[in-house]
Every structure is written in C-alpha cells, then in structure tokens.
TrEMBL record:
The lineage of its organism: Bacteria, Bacillati, Actinomycetota, Actinomycetes, Pseudonocardiales. GO terms for molecular function: methyltransferase activity. This is Methyltransferase. Pfam families: Methyltransf_12 (PF08242). Residues 41-130 form the Methyltransferase type domain. GO terms for biological process: methylation. The keyword Coiled coil does not apply. Keywords: Methyltransferase, Transferase. PANTHER family: PUTATIVE (AFU_ORTHOLOGUE AFUA_2G14390)-RELATED (PTHR43861:SF3), TRANS-ACONITATE 2-METHYLTRANSFERASE-RELATED (PTHR43861). InterPro entries: Methyltransf_12, SAM-dependent_MTases_sf. The keyword Methyltransferase applies. Coiled coil: none annotated.
Amino acid sequence: MTQISGDTHLQSDALEDLTSAVNYRKWLCSLGFPHFGDDVLEIGSGLGHYASEWADMGARITASEADESRLRTLRKRFAHDARVTVRELTVPISETADYSSVVAYNVLEHIEDDVGALRSFSGLLRHGGAIVLVVPAFEFAMSRFDRAIGHHRRYRAAGLARALTEAGLTVEHCHYINGPGLLAWYVTCRLLGGRPKEGPMLTAYDKLYVPVERRIESRLRMPFGQSVFAVARRP
C-alpha cells in the first residue's frame, strides 16, 4: 500500500478555503455520526473541522494526521479539548486496535491501493465496528485539481461497494450524496479548470442550496452525486 498522495500545501489551502461551508460540513457529519459508537478514529483529519463538529455532537473521537503541518494544527486546536485526542497516523497502517468505528472523509481516493487501505482500516476496528467513508464520485468529473491534490480515482457507488466487499467488509450503506453538486464540480473544476474556494458563490451555495438538498436527500436516494457515502462493518 502506498502513502497518501498529493500536494500537501494545496490540500491544506483547499481545506482552509472550505472552512466557511458550515451547512455542508454539518450535513456530512450528520450522515456519519449515527454509525460511530463509543470510540471513533478519524483518518486524515486535516485541520480538524469534522472532528470538532462530531465532538460537539457528542462523539469521543481520535483525530489523526500524517502531514506534519496539519498535525501541529490539530494539536494546537485540541490542546485543551478533552473530547478529542490527537495522534499521528501514517499510511501504510500496520498496527491493529479496538475502535468502534473508523471514519475517513475524502481520504480513500488519495491511496493507490484502496482495497489494501480498507483492510488496514478494518484491522483498527473491534468486531462489528464500522468504517464510514465519503469519497468523490464519477470519473468523468476528474479534473486537474483532483490530480493536483492527489486523487487516484473518483468512484461509482457500485465500485466502492466492491472494494469494501473485497476487503472483507459487510456493506450496510453505499449511495450518492449531493446530487446537483456534481454539476457544480464538473463545471467549476473540469470545464473551467478552477477549484472550490471561499467567496460569494460558496457562501450562497452553502446557505441557500445545501439546506434544501439535505432535506430532499433525507427522503430520496439520488442516482448520482458529487460524492459517495458508505458504511461497512467488520464481521
């Protein structure tokens, strides 16, 4: 299994640029939280925005990073927060543990051997524990920005389910989220060669569009989306 790839400075810049997408982050956090259990490990915690949100929701969480600068940011951010433990964790992962769940949002696509990574994630779980994932969807939306930040692939739901099954996991959920967001990504990143960033368009998207789409997708399963959300368990 290879290490997580991509321009780490650009990754951090992109994470910083999306800080204001509060409603979108709350939406993704609400999807994962019900599957967590009592002791959660987040792989690739970035700047800690998801970890902070989940802690506010009541999770006991360990945030982890391999990148030194982001690890320093995490340690500073959570230095006085007893709800969040911070640790270094690099890929490939050889250790085993007994977490109730492992969550990795927008991480798996950075790892060349995704099945091998999922097997190593499984080794960090107790039996019956859950792996909770969000990954980018649809290869036709692959852009220069995707490649610059180290994306090896974008997924279809069926392909992610196959990878989870091949890794020995039992799939419980695997479906698209943020349906119309796929079009926005395709136009902004693939056709125009841009990237998601702070500004009036992101603010309007987060405040006006996301709450509506979240309500719609709480009732309907979309046949497409910007991302795939998945939950799978270690037997």
